[in-house]
Amino acid sequence: MPHDSMDDAFTEGASRFRQPVGLFPPKPGKYNIVARSVLENELLQPRHPEAVDAYIREEILESVIKKGHVYVLSAPQYFKGKGKKLVKIGKAVNVGDRISQIKSTCGISDLQRVFDDKDTPHHLYWKVERLVHAELENSREPLQCDLHRRQNGAPTEHGEWFHVPEQVALEVVQRWRDFVNEDPYDGNGVLKSHWSEMLMGT
Predict the structure, then answer these.
(1) From CA 55, how far away is CA 34, in angstroms rounded?
(2) Cα–Cα dist 101/124, whole Å
(3) CB-facing half-sphere around the CA of 173: CA atoms within 13 A
(4) Which of 94, 168, 179, 191 could form a disulfide with 164 if both were Cys (CB 3.0 to 4.6 A apart)?
C-alpha cells in the first residue's frame, strides 16, 4: 500500500474513535487521564476524545519488543495477624510503577520488593512468570481484596499470591530466569532440538 494511502487509512481510522467512548483499558503508571478515572470509579466512564487520541498515540509509539521483570513482593505488616504470610509473584516492565499501583488500588501500604541480586530485564519475562506460577501452583493462595469488589459485593480474588517463603519464591524465579537466559528458543519461538530432546528424554 502506498504511503499516502496508509496515511489516509490511519487518519480515517483514528477519526472513527473520536467519540468519547471508553474502549481502551488503562495501563499502570501511564495515561494519567485514563488511569485516574478508573481508580476513582471501577466502571469505565466515557472519555474525552483527546484522552482516546493520547492513548492511541502512546500505544503506537510503544515498542512491540519489550523487556520486563519477574518480581517477588512481600507485605509483612499487611499479613501480620492474618494467619498466613503470602508473597506476590508477577511480571512488569516497570516494577516500581506496578508496586505503586497495587499499593493504591489494593491498600497494601507496606508492599515491597524482595531483593533480587540476579534480576535482569528480559524479553521472555512473561514465559518466566508462567513457569514460576506452574511450579508453585499447589501453593497458590488467591488474595481476597476488599477494595476491589464484584458487582454482587463479593471481594475480588487476586491470583498471583502464593503461600511460600520469600526465599523459596526467589529461588524459583531465578531458576526459570536462568533457563530462558540460556536462549532455549529459536528465532521462530520454538524450543531448540537440544532442549526438546532433554525434555522428552530422548
Answers:
(1) 8
(2) 23
(3) 30
(4) 168
User: How high is the pLDDT of residue 35?
Assistant: 42
Residue 149: its pLDDT value, please?
66
**Averages of pLDDT over each 10 residues, the chain, 202 residues:** 50 45 44 41 66 86 86 94 91 96 90 96 94 95 77 76 96 96 92 91 72
Closest CA to 39 of 56, 26, 52: 26
What is the pTM (predicted TM-score) of this model? 0.69
Between CA 106 and CA 63, with CA 119 as vertex, the angle to 5 degrees is 75
Pair 121, 68: CB distance under 8 Å: yes
In our burial notation (b when 16+ CB lie closer than 10 A, e otherwise), range 158-187 reads bebbbebeeeebbebbbebbeebeeebeee
Q: Where are the beta strands (DSSP E) in the chain?
A: 69-74, 87-92, 112-113, 143-149, 155-158, 161-162
